[in-house]
Write a structure and sequence with these properties.
The complex is a heterodimer of chains A (about 350) and B (about 350). With about 350 residues, chain A is α/β, with parallel strands linked by helices. Chain A folds into two domains: about 200 residues, Rossmann fold (3-Layer(aba) Sandwich); about 140 residues, Rossmann fold. Chain A is built from 15 helices and 16 strands. In chain A, strand 2 and strand 3 form a beta hairpin. The longest helix of chain A has 21 residues. Chain B has about 350 residues and is an all-alpha fold. The chains are: A alpha/beta (about 350), B mainly alpha (about 350). Chains A and B meet through helix 1, strand 11, strand 13, helix 11 and helix 12 of A and helix 3 and helix 7 of B.
């Protein structure tokens, strides 16, 4: 049960932060980042405060209840692929990452696999079955996790624990700005800003080409699992991206958390209209064709993307490419509007035949 | 016929039609309420065959809504009867159809089928395989329980063995999950939450005929069930072959639970709470009355819970077992607190 929670939450992590374009970064959702004279005060996904004090400086006597973390952090344990991918993006993965909760074979990023081979990064056990002795032995400065249940144990071990996911905000802009919460821990604010600018630039480029879009394909994002339907709601970053990239997200009345269960009836109605469907299943599950998908879900056989439309499945790289969100966006835009954005490269998604 | 019996019969005479009317109302509500807005006149036209089957609305009514409501109706009724039989067997009001590890056995088998399908060389697993696996798992546990029941006299020992078997099956399932492909777990976890969504008419026919035969068999045993409630010695004096009767009772209860669980996954609380509702409503311990009452009330309660599950936050869907638990738990707690009656 907890392993599926890990998967679902890793998807959620992918969608942290609010989508209010008007508000400043410092006040969106539970995450905040505030520069202060004696350091940077941040709050995590469950609003716990951390005072980031540069190494060499003395922490103030009164931190107002905030946990002091000396930065840049040098030894990190990260649960989510989202947080790990930002370390890749900052170019500091080999220097700082010391522990993960996925085995080597489950990673596709060569840098991580190599570091695990060399013993620089240790597999600590599944997220629900962490080996805390091993965790303590790698002497982390901090643990980034989505699992608040482990906070008491790690407090006993005197290891600061930062919750890096939230259900409160999941929009597209927030997805990009999440990096600005992670960056101060590593003194990578400038790199974080570059990432955000790249992302905003990608949005601008996509928006600029939008007038050339004539027909908007109808899109659904989800799957049927043993007669139950899980989908991305309309407020998820992927749905917003679909609408932005020249598509029309068909489940526009569905709001809520990522991987939300909806009725078969609603899915079927949307599926009858949709031209394109993105599934959650990666080819790793053995689903490599529409036929296999139909065998596993007979009810899906009659929806339009199965009959005459297109179905895409995320490659493993997709889940480790949060630092390349602009490229992911362009690939989705190319899938939806190949004549406007050029043919897709299929680096993050695979088309099922 | 004494006066008490006449009063009772009069009560049943109006209570059964009332429950049947409630059931009919729940069926109509389930048919007309859904994510897709289909007008009543359209639904009538679809039901009368005046709308071609390829029209979306017709597909929704015949392939999605009706199978679901019929499945929840039948499945809920069967679970309630299964729970009633268990409560009679153990003479304990706080047992349900899953007390002897039926759902854990089904869950383990589904876990083996879904979580290890890749390792066994299957790319995907068809829903029918899931149903078959669940049935085999539930029946395997049932076979062990029956074997034990035929050799052990102590009801408590059997109960403990059933609970232990549930633990073992759950432990094995956890081990499977620990080594499983993460994406496969999604499929498995959703099955474990129980739902009457996505039933096919073929599944319903199997459920109806197989379960129906068991319920008829149970009803024919109701006189013996009543005697058994008064004690084994009494039942024996009434000519009941206790050893055979106990095995048969467990078989019928487990088989009903296995049939429903195989197709719908474990649906909690119906089997536990509805028999109590039937006893309170009909003010009787007579199984000749309680069996049909459980069938009707079980269908009604499950239908209403399912309606709430799929419409409360529509188009988002809530797990059925959560709704049945929210509904069932207060009833059971209330009964325990007040001790209004005993078995």
């Amino acid at each position: 049960m907890k392993r599926i929670a890990a998967f679902l939450i890793s998807v959620l992590v992918f969608s942290c932060w609010g989508c209010n374009f008007e508000k400043s970064f410092q006040s969106i959702g539970p995450f905040t980042v505030q520069k202060q004279p004696n350091g940077t005060l941040v709050s995590d996904g469950i609003s716990r405060k951390f005072l980031l004090v540069p190494r060499g400086q003395k922490a103030p006597a009164d931190t107002g209840g905030a946990t002091v973390v000396y930065t840049p952090v040098k030894r990190v344990i990260a649960y989510s692929t989202c947080d790990v991918s930002f370390l890749v993006g900052f170019g500091i993965l080999r220097e700082v990452l010391v522990g993960v909760t996925k085995e080597k074979d489950e990673w596709t990023t060569d840098l991580i696999r190599q570091a695990m081979d060399e013993g620089k990064i240790i597999y600590l056990g599944e997220s629900s079955q962490i080996n805390f002795e091993l965790l303590k032995s790698v002497k982390p400065d901090i643990v980034f996790t989505w699992n608040a249940d482990i906070i008491p144990v790690l407090e006993d071990l005197q290891i600061p624990t930062v919750i890096t996911s939230t259900e409160l905000a999941k929009g597209l802009e927030a997805q990009a700005k999440y990096v600005e919460f992670i960056a101060p821990f590593f003194h990578k604010e400038k790199e974080g800003r570059v990432f955000v600018d790249k992302f905003l630039n990608a949005i601008d480029q996509i928006k600029a080409k939008s007038p050339a879009i004539k027909d908007r394909p109808s899109v659904i994002w989800g799957d049927v699992y043993n007669k139950r339907v899980l989908v991305e709601p309309n407020n998820a970053w992927v749905s917003q991206l679909v609408n932005l990239s020249g598509g029309k997200y068909e489940l526009d009345d569905v709001q809520g958390a990522s991987c939300l269960e909806i009725t078969i009836e609603r899915f079927f109605l949307a599926g009858k209209k949709a031209d394109i469907m993105f599934t959650y299943r990666s080819p790793k599950t053995g689903i490599n064709s529409k036929r296999q998908l139909a065998i596993e879900n007979p009810m899906m056989a009659s929806i339009r993307p199965m009959l005459s439309g297109e179905i895409y499945t995320p490659r493993e790289t997709f889940y480790e490419s949060y630092h390349r969100l602009d490229e992911v966006m362009f690939e989705i835009a190319s899938i939806l509007q190949p004549t406007v954005f050029g043919p897709p490269r299929y680096e993050f998604f695979q088309r099922l035949q | 016929m004494n006066e008490d019996t006449m009063v009772e019969n009069r009560r049943y005479l109006y209570l059964f039609p009332i429950v049947a009317l409630l059931l009919a109302a729940s069926v109509i509500l389930n048919l007309i309420i859904g994510t897709a807005h289909i007008r009543l006149s359209e639904i009538l036209a679809i039901l009368l065959g005046r709308v071609p089957s390829e029209v979306v609305e017709s597909f929704i009514i015949f392939k999605i809504r009706m199978p679901r409501l019929v499945a929840s109706l039948i499945g809920g009724g069967f679970l309630a009867v299964s729970g009633l039989l268990m409560q009679v067997y153990f003479r304990n009001p706080i047992v349900g159809p899953y007390i002897l590890g039926i759902s854990s056995g089904a869950t383990l088998a589904v876990g083996i089928a879904t979580l290890s399908s890749l390792s066994l060389g299957f790319a995907g697993i068809s829903p029918y395989m899931t149903v078959l696996a669940a049935f085999i798992g539930a029946c395997s546990v049932m076979a062990i329980v029956i074997f034990v029941a035929s050799r052990m006299k102590s009801v408590i020992a059997l109960l403990l063995i059933g609970i232990m078997m549930g633990y073992v099956a759950s432990a094995l399932t956890d081990i499977l999950v620990a080594f499983a492909n993460k994406e496969k777990i999604k499929h498995f976890v959703l099955w474990g939450m129980g739902s009457f969504s996505g039933f096919s008419w073929e599944e319903i026919l199997i459920l109806f005929f197989a379960g129906g035969a068991i319920v008829v068999g149970t009803y024919l045993m109701s006189k013996h069930l009543n005697a058994f409630l008064l004690g084994e010695e009494y039942a024996q004096s009434m000519g009941v072959n206790i050893r055979l009767f106990r095995v048969l009772l467990i078989f019928l209860s487990c088989a009903l639970a296995a049939l429903v669980t195989a197709s719908a996954g474990p649906v909690g609380f119906i089997g536990l709470a509805v028999p109590h509702m039937a006893r309170i409503l009909f003010k009787t311990q007579n199984n000749r009355i309680l069996i049909p009452a459980c069938l009707l009330l079980g269908g009604f309660v499950t239908n209403i819970c399912d309606l709430v599950a799929r419409t409360a936050f529509s188009p988002a869907e809530l797990p059925l077992s959560s709704i049945t638990a929210i509904f069932g738990a207060p009833i059971v707690i209330g009964l325990i607190a007040k001790r209004r009656y005993s078995l």
